[in-house]
Amino acid sequence: MIRLSPYSVLIFHGNMLRVKSASRYSLLYSATCSSFLMFMTIAISKIVQGLAPSATLAMSAKAKELKSQGKTVYDLSVGEPDFVTPQHICDAGTAAMKSGYTKYTIASGIPELKKAIVEKYKIDYGLEYKPSQVVVSNGAKHSLHNVFFATLDPNDEVIIPAPYWVSYAELVKLSGAMPVILSTEESQNFKMTTEHFKQAITPKTKMLLLCNPSNPTGIMYNAKELEEIADIVLKKNLFVIADEIYDKLVYSNDQFVSFPTLRSGLQERTIVVNGVSKTYAMTGWRVGWTLSPENIAKKMGELQSQETSNPSSISQHAALAALTGPQDCVTEMLAAFIERRNYVAKRIAHINGLTCPEMNGAFYVFFNIKNYLGKTLGGVRIDNSEQFCLELLMQKQVATVMGSAFGCEGYVRASFAAGLDILKEAFDRISEFVNS
Ligand SMILES: Cc1ncc(COP(=O)(O)O)c(C=O)c1O
Question: Is 213 near ligand 1, meaning CB less than 6 Å away?
Fold first, then answer.
């Protein structure tokens, strides 16, 4: 368990940021001939200096740079479906523009979309919410930011099982609170044990952040495992952020179980995060949402009204069409993901020295490269996952993301949200690389 300290958060948090801002200019004097030239640089705040950039987006940017140099790159770095947004959803976006839905909306989202989200949770999981418990944001990442800012105080602790999605720890730190990283083992299918969870709880623990199915490992907790976690949450009076953005991308025989359904009283202690990015191939539209107790939703809506106002009015109408329109597109994309997932599992099993947990959801494979650490691949010694990924990109033009970015050294994440032809070539190259 690692407690990450937020970088000088107390000094630069809230009002104190304003007090400090007057002295945030540094002056550089330079004597040239007989006159002085004055340069002024604006200092970066301590809290943002301490922010790690998104490793997935950084790897994707590197891959794009190589592509711009005319190289063919097999990009498995970013978690983005390769499908285009289904036509009826795009049409709804166009129709929204033509109908004049191009103005500000209520900051927390249009009532029709909130109603559709409420209905989805009723139909899919039997959960009863009111529209006033929904906040629609600019993607699920923004929803997570809203949750952390609306609920966390400095020094509150948030338990995050690792490997975790890259942005969790950084977003918690930005809010001034403290991410408590709880490592899990491949031998336990990267699942947090209840014993380990209990040990991590301190008087400062406010919430658990649970991503199910998981990015980056693709594992999914079953009902029994979730019930055990839920019992501890209730007993210890904790809150849970249930990031269920991959709820419709499930390949397991076990059914996906939405966290608040598990026990009575849990809905009041859970904030569900979800969105349209992954299920409907709508990453660029930027629509995510939260379902939370009403008082938190109210405050998150107010926060959003000051920070960003509403998410795009056009995107909200497109998301409405996604949720209320035909769902065959989801079934078709899921079928393609299943085929790719099976193909990738087979390829990993046949590459000497690589292992991975069974992928039950999402669209990632998180493979173990420990057998290759300390070895020389293509003439370069590889000591960690970052070097592995960089050399794989430079030598074989395959973009992946190092496990260290997900809080788990010795592993690499590859997305299988890419066509089978790309996956085939990429895994041929990964195989060549580890055998080089
Ligand atoms: C687990 C998880 N949560 C949230 C998000 C953010 O999704 P969005 O594109 O809606 O911001 C992602 C995107 O990669 C994710 O993998």
Answer: no
Say how many Å lie between the CA of residue 245 and the centre of ligand 1: 7
Q: What is the pLDDT of residues 208-236, one digit of tens each?
A: 999 999 999 999 999 999 999 999 999 99
The tally of domains found in the chain comes to 3
Ligand 1 center to residue 140 CA distance, Å? Answer: 5
105 lines ligand 1 (CB under 6 A): no
Q: Within a 10 A sphere around the Cβ of 210, how many other Cβ atoms?
A: 22
Same domain, 112 and 198: yes
State the residue range of the domain holding 10. Answer: 2-49
Tell me, yes or no, whether 228 and 126 share the same domain.
yes
CB atoms near residue 17 (< 10 Å): 14
> What's the pLDDT at 170?
93
CATH number at residue 355: 3.90.1150.10
Residues 6+ apart with CB under 8 A from 284: none
CA of 319 to the centre of ligand 1 (A): 16
Ligand 1 contact via 79 beta carbon (within 6 Å): yes
The tens digit of pLDDT for each residue in 397-415 reads 999 999 999 999 999 999 9
Query: Residue 253 belongs to a domain with what CATH number?
Result: 3.40.640.10
* Whether residue 195 sits in one domain with residue 133: yes
Distance (Å, whole) CA 92 – CA 24: 47
- For the Cβ of 362 lying below 6 angstroms from any atom of ligand 1, the answer is no
Read off the tokens for 224.
């029994």
